[in-house]
Amino acid sequence: MARRSTSRRRDAGRASKPVLEQLPWREVRNPFPPVDVLSADQLEHIHNSSLTVLEELGMEVMGTEARRLYREAGADVDDSTMRVRMDRAMVMEQIDKVPSEFTLHSRVPERNITMGGNRIVVAAVSSPPNCSDLDNGRRPGTFEDFRNLVRVAASLNCIHFFAGYPVEPIDLPVLTRHLDCYMTFITDTDRVWRTYALGAERSHDGIIMNRIARGISEEEMIEKPGLITLINTNSPLRLDEPMSQGLIEMAQNGQPVSITPFTLLGAMAPTTLAGALVQQNAEALATIALIQLVRPGSPAVYGGFTSNVDMKSGAPAFGTPEYVKATFAGGQLARRYGIPFRTSNVNASNAVDAQAAYETGMSLWAAFVAHGNFIHHGAGWLEGGLVASFEKMIVDAEMLQGMFETMMPITVNDAEIGIEAMADVGPGGHFFGTQHTLDRYENAFYSPMLSDWRNYESWVEAGSPDAATRANKIWKQQLENFEAPPLDPAIREELEAFVAKRKEEGGVHDN
Amino acid sequence: MARRSTSRRRDAGRASKPVLEQLPWREVRNPFPPVDVLSADQLEHIHNSSLTVLEELGMEVMGTEARRLYREAGADVDDSTMRVRMDRAMVMEQIDKVPSEFTLHSRVPERNITMGGNRIVVAAVSSPPNCSDLDNGRRPGTFEDFRNLVRVAASLNCIHFFAGYPVEPIDLPVLTRHLDCYMTFITDTDRVWRTYALGAERSHDGIIMNRIARGISEEEMIEKPGLITLINTNSPLRLDEPMSQGLIEMAQNGQPVSITPFTLLGAMAPTTLAGALVQQNAEALATIALIQLVRPGSPAVYGGFTSNVDMKSGAPAFGTPEYVKATFAGGQLARRYGIPFRTSNVNASNAVDAQAAYETGMSLWAAFVAHGNFIHHGAGWLEGGLVASFEKMIVDAEMLQGMFETMMPITVNDAEIGIEAMADVGPGGHFFGTQHTLDRYENAFYSPMLSDWRNYESWVEAGSPDAATRANKIWKQQLENFEAPPLDPAIREELEAFVAKRKEEGGVHDN
């Protein structure tokens, strides 16, 4: 059965290595209807209030070019305070231009991904400053850690793309770091990847490298985007200059931009869900409108990242009831505007333990029930995003696979039902040896990569390995088995030359 | 705010003891629409096929009285093979008599529970042969363990009732064990509890003890049931004699009976979801029909417990994609018949680790999405039901509270939204100190009992306690703080006399 084939090794000469049994790469579609947490009236109340916020309070837009674009569209712009007030008609006119779905093109067409509708694409964790594993503990990320996390993630079929650096490689110089990281995405993976919108140059470099990797022209790049960038507004109600520069660079080139206000209840947003949702929505709409002002019809993603803080310590919390409800509401708002919805797979645990898994489970189910199209931080996120955990990446992959498999339809027909088999087995019998079972058992069920279903005695005999310990073994095996996907040597050379040139120039100059 | 009050200690004199901050006892309602996994055609195909199974194959019904009841209703009964074939019209005529909801009455009316509609009630784990905790490890259950688990569960507001012994107290004599256990449920808790339907006598004793505890007559007991029993068919297609005796005893007395076929794919049921669902449905309908033949209109529950086995070892698996889909489908079938739906909160992990939590998360979300009315094994289940874990009980309580809180509505109005607060705070500011926050922050968010949101450094300083380690501390604290709810001394005396008399008689004689 194709849907459950074991991943094949490319190099038959080393066939003795153990190979991880996992689900194949798959376009995931959510067959269930989305669940509405807000009544129609509540939804409109939030929608209208967020437009009122943009009219009456506006956003502080720190980029000169961004303010110019808003002003040209008729917004009330005060350059001294950088405040931009925009009327609801203008905002909604821009929002109406956003495509309801779009495809991101990989250098390997089989790895193209589409966002929108009932599709689900999952990205690896991105941007933690630290990483951790059971062998070497918690530490600031290096380029070696970055490459290892990229390689482990790329070996997992449930990771559809990279929406950022799985860990920040802080041993690389800031001004040229992006060049080495983009190069790794291209050489070590066949996945779509993200540029960082800290100013225009990092995106510009990414666009050039993506074009070289795919061997396409500027026009083709616009027509068939291959990159995404993620913009966080500086909540409340501020868009900083580097972010707006990156946004403009990407949108000018037709590359999708995902907007996510980071609206922690009681910190960067009101302490109420209704207030935080209004603010999230205001910031998202204003920024998505800006994308359309740069290039009408340019692809955009509506992101929600509303959660609460621990009121005792101020620490952010994730996978909480408030987080789940905000995710449900975020999905509903994005559907209202017909824009693909981004959510996340997050938790605030300090260890790869039960808390990490139950908070992640809350986030993941929220994402699926809310019809998230783009699930960010899909695998590896720990400690509220301060850590990329190698073991957590495997735990998350197992959880993602379980969700993907849950979305596969149930086949109902007489052959599947097998009343004859029931007659053969008879009351009190068992189905182990019946033909109906023998014909199907090999591929009948989802086969987990991490879950351990041995009986207790066998498990103790094996050293009582908990899920994190087993995950440790798996990621190391994946790293050992790693093989880079093929890349045309001429393309590699051209990329290397570009990176060398940009490094000679000193890398980024715009911030 | 009432909905988030900290539980109060009864004895102000020992006020120095730490008190667990938890959500108050609450009638939980599921505000979201149930999700259908089967198309209308698929649902009818399964429904019709299960009726065909009952007509053509029938059930093996080992109890003489049960067969008599089926025969009187027109079923084709063969006493030599014990096979009972029943036509679809007869089955559905009985199914139509089942009430869509019913209330179970506690000796403390505040602890009454109602099953049906969009209500959710949760029971503690029941019937594992073993228990475990981090201090004393895994061991066969004793009466001391039983009492301790009952007391910890009764201290948790998210546990609505006891649907069985949290662990089997194997140091108590089998024939009188139920008397000591029922006594504990009455004296140490204020919750509704379950009788065991292993023959009629255990249920009969339970009914008498429940009447004494509540100080009510036989007629009142029928009118206001206070007990439930759980029947597992011996899948495939067999109902054993003790179970049918227990069922009849309970139904005669108007006490609800919950029917759950235990249909493991590829073991006691076909290896296909469609086949297992047909068999589950056939067994459930036939047995619920029997309840109605005993006493038309007697309350019943439709249970689903379809999951897969590990095809490598034959070990049962829980919280799997197949389990989730079977739960969705089970809920849909129960809704088709208008009967309350029972599901479970289960996993197959050997440790209180990430696997335990992610498999439990799958089961729990499946229960909520499928609109389970009665969530069995809600807290404490580990190792596929072979172990009741003290630590897992606390992990589950945290997960249950998270789900309950997720079901609370979002309030949307201008005061909650607080546009003025946004204006005061301004772009880039923070909401920590604003009046809008100060007015609300104390009770703004769900406050977890187990989740640890300290920063990494503080957590390491505290000894890096993982979730299981923290749970260990909590259950011990709950046990230490335990105080039995008040019980009229005259009632206690009457109960003690009844138990003494029944022990003198040697306890159970019917099996």
What this model shows, in words?
Two copies of one chain form a homodimer. The first copy, chain A, is α/β, with parallel strands linked by helices and about 500 residues long. Helix content of chain A is about 40%, strand content about 15%. The first copy, chain A, contains 18 helices and 20 strands. In chain A, strands 1-7-18-17-15-13-11-10 form an eight-stranded mixed β-sheet. Chain A has a four-stranded mixed β-sheet with strand order 3-4-2-12. In chain A, helix 4 (about 145-155) packs parallel to helix 5 and helix 6 (about 200-215) packs parallel to helix 8. The radius of gyration of chain A is 24 Å and the shape is globular. The first copy, chain A, starts with about 25 loop residues before the first strand and ends in a 7-residue tail after the last helix. The relative contact order of chain A is 0.14. Residues about 1-15 of chain A have low confidence and may be disordered. Chains A and B meet through helix 1, helix 9, helix 10, helix 11 and helix 12 of A and helix 1, helix 9, helix 10, helix 11 and helix 12 of B.
